[in-house]
Amino acid sequence: LRGRGGAGFPTGLKWEFTAKAQSDQKYIVCNADEGEPGTFKDRLIMEGDPHTVIEAMIIAGYAVGATKGYIYIRGEYYNSVENLRKAIKDAYEYGFLGENILGSGFNFDLTVRLGAGAYVCGEETALLESIEGKAGRPRLKPPYPPQVGLFGKPTVINNVETLANVPQIILNGAEWFRSIGTPNSPGTKVFCLAGDVNRRGMVELPIGVTVREVLYGFGGGIKGGRELKMVQTGGLAGTFIRPDKLDTPLDYDSMKNYGVSLGSGVILAIDDTHCAVDIALNVMEFFRHESCGKCTPCREGTKVACDILERMTRFQATEEDLKYLEQIAYVTADASFCGLGQSINVPLLSLINNFRDEFIAHVKDKTCAVGLCKEVKPKKATVK
């Protein structure tokens, strides 16, 4: 089982690190802070089957020797929160949580913690800081959570979808699980299909299906019969690809070889009515808003990138600005403190590299291929 939160790190290895750590207290944390735009898989799992997540956390606790768990969830997920609290209460009443669970001698307690909406708290150490009552800002790594995590104790942090796989693996066995998906990425993945497709929504498919199969098999093709211009995979920090990459298998290793990320499982289809420069501005505005401000490269880099892109959409930028924008993307990725700043170059550079002609047209010819961007001319003030 590989982590379904984005990185695809082997779950068993993460558990093993924590199990081997020597401590009087260990924790299991469920990362349910689903802040990625277009992603809603964790929400539906928690609303539809919260007991699966609870069961998985109990199993994880037993495996690594942890006796306390936290579910860190978006405060905006009202129904999910209520469902989880009700499910936890029921689990205590039936003896699945608390002291001496089912006479086993194993103790495990579970608590729900609400996030305040910060995107950066999806980063595991920022999440831990938030649970501890501090500002949700990332920690310096190493040490890593399996050694020094919540309240300084060894901690397992798993995503909702990752945990949802655990009870089925325990019930049906490893061979059953490995019969689905690919040899290096077994199992299924929940994909959230969004954008300009005829049928948007969530679908669970074996890992290894292609982008094309998801778009046209489940999504029913591009809305209105328009031409597909690009697809973004893996969430807002993911890569934008052209239609000639639609046959890329959706598994961790294949996508890495193509320079693409599976990420949270979002597949965003974009038709030919959209401008690549305008999309880049929208992406960077999101990261500028969600930057925690802890490190200068991310805090200032996103601001400057937004300023350049905004001037591009108004035909006020130059070719030197485009070069500077690319430099900012590289520097921000290399020098930022956490994964948020380190990943913003991925969508930005993939847009520039795949649609460089559009960026050049905005700075050199002062034109937008789809007519979306308009020149803004300042009006003279008049006094009556």
TrEMBL record:
One Pfam family from the record: Complex1_51K
The record's listing under Gene3D superfamilies reads: 3.10.20.600, NADH-ubiquinone oxidoreductase 51kDa subunit, NADH-ubiquinone oxidoreductase 51kDa subunit, iron-sulphur binding domain
Q: Domain named NADH-ubiquinone oxidoreductase 51kDa subunit iron-sulphur binding: which ranges?
A: 277-322
Q: Which GO terms describe its molecular function?
A: 4 iron, 4 sulfur cluster binding; FMN binding; metal ion binding; NADH dehydrogenase (ubiquinone) activity
Give the matching SUPFAM superfamilies: Nqo1 FMN-binding domain-like (SSF142019), Nqo1 middle domain-like (SSF142984), Nqo1C-terminal domain-like (SSF140490)
Q: Does the keyword Nucleotide-binding apply?
A: no
**The entry's keywords:** 4Fe-4S, Iron, Iron-sulfur, Metal-binding
Enumerate the InterPro entries for this protein.
NADH-UbQ_OxRdtase_51kDa_CS, Nuo51_FMN-bd, Nuo51_FMN-bd_sf, Nuop51_4Fe4S-bd, Nuop51_4Fe4S-bd_sf
Which NCBIfam families does this entry report, sorted A to Z? PRK13596.1
Of which family is this protein a member? Answer: Belongs to the complex I 51 kDa subunit family.
- The entry's protein name is NADH-quinone oxidoreductase subunit NuoF
Organism, by scientific name, is: Fervidobacterium pennivorans
